[in-house]
Amino acid sequence: MKKALAMAMSTCLLATSLVGCGSNESKQPEASSTPAPSTEASASPEASAEAADPSAVSGTLRFNWWGGDDRHTATLEAVKAFEAKYPNIKVESEYGGWDGHAEKITTQMTGGTAADVLQVNYDWLSKFSPDGTGFLDLESMGSYLDLSTFSEDVLTFGRRKGVLNAIPVSTTGRSMYFNKTTFDKVGAELPKTWDDLLALGEKFSAQGLYPYDLDTGSGFPGWYNSIVYMQQKTGHLFINEDGTLGFTQEDIKEGLDFYKSLEDAKVIRTQEQRSNEAGTTPLYQTPSWLDGKVAGVLEWSSSIGKFESALEEKGQELVLGNLLTLDGAQSTGWFMKPSLLFAINKDTKSPEAAAVLLNYILNDPEAAVILGTTRGIPASSAAKEALQAAGELEGLAYEGTKQIEDCQPIIMSPYLENSIMKEIYKEAVEAVSYGTATTEEAAATMYEELVDTLESIAQ
């Protein structure tokens, strides 16, 4: 079934690249190097064209996004401000949490009922626009959409076959965040190495607590954590630039062994423990997180606000942890990708109005201050300058983004988050956690399925 689905979702290759990080002694994976996205803006010919009058544009738009309450509240406020500034354009907001969102958008895209302006995930470009025609060419909207505020390196993330399908709002990476209130209560220091993290299990479990968690549902955080560890240990890329699998079967087994060691050391709860508490409810909404029983999370910098605000309401403090490493690390191991992107439906009946809305959300100083860092640190130089002037380039989202950027991380392959790939990670992690397969057995199955899937989708 997975192979059939993989064939149906075949996509074209987006190259990934690697830049070094860490000490001078660290060796880098054998892959060509590409600089991390620049922060300097570069104007395109379309962006420098004479701008049209956006106030003369009219239309009714559907605007779709996912996120937590902090993002919803800020975006709804920005939409209200947009309608006040452009009264001829009406916006119908459609939003919700991440769970089930990708499936919903897939149905809408397939059925031709998707919104006019969409927040999209990185892997959706290869899924919905393998030949570059799945979304509106945003460079055709240069009269209403200013692209000069984005560097070409950043815009490259949104191109398919050279066509600008989407614009990255920001870049992001998963970092480790910890409940300082709980750590202070236990009398523990934040870990700096993987060994430090493993050693915390005994100290926390003595008080019925856990220092870390890898969320539940997709199995992705658990395997992501192991990928970072194994990339550091071996110097191998999990997915090579050409879309082939970079890990050996033995690498995968060691990665699953590492995941299981976190459970065995009581650093994290088992899959069964998390599922029994709240099913697939996101960690930040569970009693274990809100009560400080679970004191750490691996999360995107662009999404950490929902975890932080949940603890603030309980009088607890969330802080950024260290990017853990190990002695003799062969690479940084940690990833960066576009946090999310915005695209316009190629079938929209109001492309000019959609471009005006997108320009406002991405570039307008008023919108920048309203939205803050709910989608990460803006890639738009105009939005970033507005936040800087307002004194808002601070906080966990900013700190996490800077931490990843400053490490010159591995640029994440778009295939890493492919839905079929995620299902493979989930089945392997659950099999090991529930004890229905040994790490060796799970690795053999996982390796075969990953190779087959990548052969289908990375064409």
TrEMBL record:
Keywords assigned: Signal
InterPro entries per record: Bact_solute-bd_prot1, SBP
Composition skew (Low complexity), residue ranges: 29-55
Region Disordered: start-end pairs: 23-55
Signal sequence region: 1-21
PANTHER family: ABC TRANSPORTER SUBSTRATE-BINDING PROTEIN YESO-RELATED (PTHR43649:SF11), ARABINOSE-BINDING PROTEIN-RELATED (PTHR43649)
Protein name, UniProt field: Extracellular solute-binding protein family 1
Source organism (scientific name): Cellulosilyticum lentocellum (strain ATCC 49066 / DSM 5427 / NCIMB 11756 / RHM5) (Clostridium lentocellum)
Lineage: Bacteria, Bacillati, Bacillota, Clostridia, Lachnospirales
